[in-house]
Specification:
Strand content: 15-25%
Helix content: 40-55%
Shape: globular
Order of helices and strands: EEEHEEHEHEHHHEHEHHH
Distance between the termini: 31 Å
Number of strands: 9
Structural class: alpha/beta
Largest sheet: 9 strands, mixed
CATH topology of the largest domain: Rossmann fold
Low-confidence stretches: none
CATH superfamily of the largest domain: Alpha/Beta hydrolase fold, catalytic domain
Mean pLDDT: 96
Number of domains: 2
Length: about 270
C-alpha cells in the first residue's frame, strides 16, 4: 500500500506516492503522463526498496504558482523529503529521463544508478523527420495553435502511445484511456513558468559513471531509438535493451515486463556493475 505526500519546492506542492522501504528508487514521468504511468513498477520495486513517484509542475495532482523553476531542484526536494541522504536510483522516461541525466551531472553523489527509457536529452542535435512523421507533427502543431485540446490529445496518443509509424489505435482499452486522462490533465493545466535548467548533458555523457539501464521501444520514433543507443554507447557503465512491441511508453504498454526489468536492476544491477 502506498502513502501520499505533498513536497514543498518554491511555490509548488509536488504530489508524490511512496511505497515500500529501503534504498530509494524515484520515478520521473514523461511529458505525456504523470505519476500514474508507474503504478505497476512502483508496486514491483516496493518489495525491496522505497519506491517514490511524483507529479512534476503542470502534471497530475501537483499544484504550482507560476514562477521560473528548476526541475532538478524539484527532484532534489522530493529526494530530500522522502529519501534523506541515501543515494537514489532514478527511473526516468522521456522528459523524465532528461531530468534524471541532468541530476546525475549536477548531483553525482546523490544518484546511485539510472534507468532511462527513451530519454530526451539537453543539448542533443536537431532532428529532421521523415515526411510521414513530419505530417503528423504538423497536425499536432496545428491542433495546439488552434487550442483544440481534444484533437491535440488524440494526436499525441497516435504519436507517443501507438508509435508514429504503427497503426493508429494499436494500444486500446484501459491503457489508452489512462494516457488520454493523464495527458488531458497536463494540457489543461495553467502555466507554471519556465524550467531554468541548462545542463548540456549530450556533450557530457562520458562524465556519468553510475550503472545505467537504457531502454527504448522498437515502435518509438526512429530518432529516439537511435539517440537511446547513442546515449548508452557514450556512457561509461550502461547496458542497452530494446523492448519489442512498445513505442514511447513501455511502462504503460508492457507494465509487467518493464516492472520486472526495473525491479531486477534495482535489486542487483547497481551492485553488480559497481
Amino acid at each position: 500500500m502506498s502513502s501520499q505526500h505533498r513536497i514543498l519546492s518554491g511555490r509548488a506542492q509536488l504530489a508524490a506516492d511512496v511505497a515500500g522501504s529501503g534504498d530509494p528508487v524515484v520515478f520521473l514521468h514523461a511529458v505525456v503522463g504523470d505519476r500514474r504511468m508507474w503504478h505497476a513498477q512502483l508496486d514491483a520495486v516496493a518489495g525491496t526498496h522505497k519506491a517514490i513517484a511524483y507529479d512534476r509542475r503542470g502534471f497530475g495532482e501537483t499544484r504550482a504558482e507560476k514562477e521560473d523553476f528548476s526541475a532538478v531542484a524539484d527532484l532534489m526536494a522530493v529526494i530530500d523529503a522522502l529519501a534523506g541522504d541515501t543515494p537514489a536510483i532514478l527511473v526516468g522516461c522521456s522528459q523524465g529521463g532528461r531530468i534524471a541525466l541532468d541530476a546525475a551531472l549536477q548531483h553525482p553523489s546523490r544518484i546511485r544508478a539510472l534507468v532511462l527509457i527513451a530519454p530526451s536529452i539537453s543539448g542533443a542535435p536537431d532532428v529532421v523527420q521523415p515526411p510521414e512523421i513530419q505530417a503528423l507533427l504538423d497536425q499536432q502543431t496545428a491542433a495546439q495553435d488552434s487550442g483544440d485540446v481534444d484533437r491535440l490529445n488524440a494526436i499525441r496518443a497516435r504519436l507517443w502511445l501507438d508509435g508514429p509509424l504503427a497503426p493508429e489505435g494499436r494500444v486500446s482499452g484501459a491503457r489508452r484511456q489512462l494516457f488520454l486522462d493523464m495527458n488531458a490533465t497536463a494540457l489543461r493545466s495553467p502555466p507554471v513558468g519556465a524550467n531554468i535548467d541548462s545542463v548540456p548533458a549530450y556533450q557530457r555523457l562520458g562524465e556519468i559513471r553510475v550503472p545505467t539501464l537504457m531502454m527504448w521501444g522498437n515502435l518509438d520514433f526512429p530518432h529516439i531509438q537511435e539517440r537511446s543507443r547513442h546515449v548508452a554507447g557514450m556512457m561509461q557503465n550502461a547496458t542497452a535493451r530494446e523492448v519489442p512491441g512498445a513505442a514511447h511508453l513501455p511502462s504503460l504498454e508492457l507494465p509487467k515486463d518493464v516492472a520486472d526489468l526495473v525491479a531486477d536492476f534495482a535489486q542487483r544491477g547497481p551492485n553488480q556493475s559497481a
